[in-house]
Specification:
Blueprint: E1 7-11, E2 15-20, H1 27-32, E3 38-43, H2 45-56, E4 61-68, H3 71-82, E5 90-93, E6 100-105, E7 114-117, H4 130-136, E8 141-145, H5 156-167, E9 171-175, E10 200-204, H6 205-212, H7 217-225, E11 231-235, E12 241-244, E13 249-252, H8 266-280, H9 284-298, H10 311-320
Parallel strand pairs: 1-4, 1-8, 2-6, 4-5, 8-9, 9-10, 10-11
Antiparallel strand pairs: 2-3, 6-7, 11-12, 12-13
Helix pairs in contact: 2-8, 6-7, 8-9, 9-10
Length: 321
Amino acid sequence: MAKAVEVIAVGALNVDIIIQGDAPRNIDELNQWVAASQVEITTAGSIGYTAIDLARLGKRVAMFSTVADDPLGEFILTSLAREGVDTRAITVQKNSASGIGIYLLLFGNKKRPLTGRLATHAPWPEKITRTLEQKFRTARALHCGGYLHYPDRWGRPAEELFCKAKKHGLMTSIDPQFPLEEIERPWLKHFGNLLKYVDTVFVDETEARAIIGEENIDAAASRLLKEGPELVVVKQGAEGALLKTGRETIHQPAFPVSEMIDSIGAGDAFDAGIIFSRLAGYGLKEAGRFASATAALTLKGMGGARTAPTLSQVQTLLKRT
């Protein structure tokens, strides 16, 4: 008998094509440039990396999402299944095209420039499916990634999903990220009542300021807490992260990395580390260290999946540091 799902991951899935090389900076030379580069293709999207990270850490993860009925959609399903992710709550949309993210890391930057195409299908089903309903009965947590990317999921559709999760006693978290088109700030109005059903909110510094309309990061985190969450995590890249509850504030430094290949997916891995830690009952300081170590280990390979660490690898780093 298959083991019960622990974490339900909700969000859009796509493939990332990551190209690393050393291209000339001069535009005339670049227009004539031809050379080989390193290329990685991986399952990604607003939630794909976090789902894979949690699976590598030993959590039983089920995806609630949509994929296209094209070869890239099949690649996504196959690669998730290979990682042990339950894909039975993923809807395959006929006559649609997969989203593609293309990272052109040819000029020294470790995460940009980025371009690509959006999928032609919905990010995830608007209605709770029967398959997902069954998973709510045994799951312990629900996490959504990329909420602000998709206006048709703002407000009520996401509220119903999170409200259902809370009724089943699940721990809930969200990494809303950012709108794909310019919209008026603050972005908080686009959440409706959603944050009342969210236990943990993950943002970076830019997102925290834009959601709340407050330049000071600590003040922005405090105002986010007043919307309902128990924990606000502000990811600050190489500067570490701010973890704030109503009683405690911690600044977690980033773990030192001797050589960074790229930072794609590091924030998603940090999310996974916090979710894992909260399910394990870790205190805030211990959770911050665990998440920071998890993120640091992903920096050593291309993309957010190739070097997603196992639990033993994270524990080894924590003991050594």
